[in-house]
């Protein structure tokens, strides 16, 4: 039998009453909303401090590691890949009640350590190098997308939003492809890109807390219908200092 698939409709936002509410486009039912802190904490909360420490402690050495510490680089490659996937999975699947920021942070860091253990051994070396190359390209792409208010290609339509991810994915594939022909160069660039990204994130968290790169990452990754009011309602407006930090980190890459 012939089946026609209809495109997924976006949730309906309504702020007629002065309070932004989100409705299911198919049933008209109200979708409960929760805060999109996504494990980043608020202000100088414990979760926020953990992310500052993690970003700088991991990012700064990684940016300088290159070929000199292959166990560090391969471990970080697999660790970052697993941590980002787990974080994205959680923030896009939790309900409006969510999960405590510190709890989510510790889960993500535990996954980073697990991935790091895999990449530190010889059997995980190829996976670690590959993940590092892809992470380097993706981290560069993310910074480029976050340079502009509401992303490089703005627009709430799904096609416009996906276009940002297509460009990020292309840079990620490019970062991985470089390893095929110029492995040493790919490793050095991957380390520098991922390392400067994390370092810039840590510094930005100190300066702008959750309103800078943190907000941009949540705006880019989080499309949970229970977070729509926070994410789309609040948008993403990077402070000048955030833009400067990202540009400098890209140049240093």
Automatic annotation (TrEMBL):
Q: Which topology term describes how it sits in the membrane?
A: Multi-pass membrane protein
Keywords from UniProt, A to Z, are: Membrane, Transmembrane, Transmembrane helix
Principal place of residence = membrane
A Pfam family that this protein carries is: TM7S3_TM198
Residue ranges spanning the membrane: these are 48-66, 72-90, 102-121, 127-147, 159-181, 187-207, 228-252
Domain TM7S3/TM198-like, which positions? 53-210
Q: Does the keyword Transmembrane helix apply?
A: yes
Q: Name one GO cellular component term.
A: membrane
Does Membrane count among this protein's keywords? Answer: yes
Q: Which compartments is it annotated to reside in?
A: Membrane
**Protein's UniProt name:** TM7S3/TM198-like domain-containing protein
User: Which taxonomic lineage does the organism of this UniProt entry have?
Assistant: Eukaryota, Fungi, Dikarya, Basidiomycota, Agaricomycotina
